[in-house]
UniProtKB/TrEMBL annotation:
Family recorded in the similarity comment: Belongs to the cytochrome P450 family.
Stated name of the protein: Cytochrome P450
Keyword Transmembrane: no
Stored PROSITE patterns: CYTOCHROME_P450
Database matches in Gene3D superfamilies: Cytochrome P450
UniProt keyword annotations, A-Z: Heme, Iron, Metal-binding, Monooxygenase, Oxidoreductase
Pfam hit, one: p450
Length: 403
């Protein structure tokens, strides 16, 4: 049976942790608008071609309104971060969304990231010190990948270091589509909400040099600012969006570079390649998780297929990033690839607000690792690396390394 006649289960499994499912290439060439069944049992439409994914993500008719009555449910337990009530508090589109992005985006400029870089380097140095003390072999994800982004986000939100571990748990619970029960997810969300509510109140009484204090200082809606509830949810969103994605990407990036150690050697010989190597790891990531779901308010056409109103579309940026019609040698890792217009951070009005932060963290991790642990290598054959199941953002279970 051809792909356009069958309904695939989604996400599509892959045999190898760092490699894409074989179906991606076939879908791009023969069935770019495919029918899939989600973990909930509901039907959706999967897009895998670069131009289609790029166009849909930039098209305001495709919304994030996944709580519509006829929208597909992503998982039987609920959709976690994608369609919780929290997700509805930040404006979804139009002028209000752009206004929110402008207010919050001031914290994510390249200039701000340059200012944060030294503290990121110190965090990375301290975490690597701890790894070295414990000695090889060591899980790079647990020792460096997982803690670093949450520590950085906590610093940006003005959260005390003592509360970092609680933040790690909340982030994990809110981004998991299968590992936690609905009750556990709701409990985590309730605890997190209460914590952030108290934290915003503290910042209102005593401002610091952090995102929340700046949003409070902008005044309320009557002054062109945000409500307390929006400020609180923005803080929660920054953690959830900025922690697990980058934590997993650190592990995957290092694994890709060590899977063929000549890549690591090239970076040691020429650290000026770090920036393009990070972009290429983002493009080549075959294990980026669910993709971006969108809900269609009006009938429209994609690649010659008419999609009726009420369709839930899943945009696979990872499949699109391997589109041979856009990237020469798309399946190869080219550490010098430039330009590299990958879609790892989305595109258009909803492109990832924190992409400058993620890029800076990935670059810093690579710089510090190359300097501190030049002899780094995988402690297991690449075939033994395992994917995390059930996480909305995709990742490796562990990244065992030695040096």
């Amino acid at each position: 049976m051809s792909l356009d006649e069958q309904v695939l289960s989604y996400p599509i499994p892959s045999d190898a942790a760092l490699e894409p499912p074989a179906e991606w290439a076939e879908l791009r060439s023969k069935c770019p608008v495919a029918h899939v069944t989600l973990p909930s049992g509901d039907q959706a439409t999967l897009l895998t071609r670069y131009e289609d994914v790029k166009r849909v993500l930039a098209d305001p008719r495709f919304t994030r309104q996944l709580n519509a009555p006829d929208a597909a449910r992503l998982s039987a337990e609920g959709d976690g971060v994608f369609s919780s009530e929290m997700a509805q508090i930040i404006p979804d589109g139009g002028d209000e969304h752009q206004h929110w992005r402008r207010l919050v985006g001031k914290w994510f400029t390249a200039k701000r990231m340059a200012a944060l870089r030294p503290s990121m380097e110190q965090i990375a140095e301290r975490l690597i010190d701890d790894m070295v003390k414990c000695g090889p072999p060591c899980d790079l994800k647990a020792g460096l990948g997982f803690p670093l982004p949450v520590y950085v986000i906590c610093d940006m939100l003005g959260v005390p270091a003592a509360d970092r571990e609680r933040f790690s748990y909340w982030s994990d619970a809110l981004l998991n589509l299968t590992r936690y029960s609905r009750a556990e997810m709701e409990a985590a969300q309730g605890e997190f909400f209460q914590y952030m509510s108290d934290h915003v109140a503290t910042k209102r009484a005593e401002a610091g040099d952090d995102v929340l204090s700046e949003l409070i200082a902008a005044g309320g809606p009557e002054d062109g600012g945000l409500t307390d509830l929006q400020i609180l949810v923005t803080g929660m969103a920054l953690l959830v969006a900025g922690h697990e994605t980058t934590a997993n990407m650190i592990g995957k990036m290092v694994s890709m570079l060590l899977a063929d150690r000549s890549r690591w050697e090239r970076l040691l010989a020429d650290p000026s390649l770090i920036r393009t190597a990070v972009e290429e790891a983002l493009r080549l990531d075959a294990n980026s998780g669910f993709g971006l779901p969108r809900y269609l308010r009006d009938e429209t056409e994609v690649s010659g297929t008419v999609l009726p109103r009420g369709t839930t579309v899943v945009c696979s940026m990872a499949a699109a990033n391997r589109d041979e019609s856009v990237f020469e040698g798309a399946a190869e890792m080219d550490l010098r690839r430039s330009p590299n217009a990958h879609l790892a951070f989305g595109v258009g009005a909803h492109s990832c607000l924190g992409q400058a932060l993620a890029r800076t963290e990935l670059q810093v991790v690579l710089e510090v690792l190359l300097r501190r642990l030049p002899s780094l290598e995988l402690a297991v054959p690449v075939e033994e690396l395992e994917r995390v199941e059930g996480l909305a953002v995709g990742g490796l279970r562990t990244v065992p390394v030695r040096w």
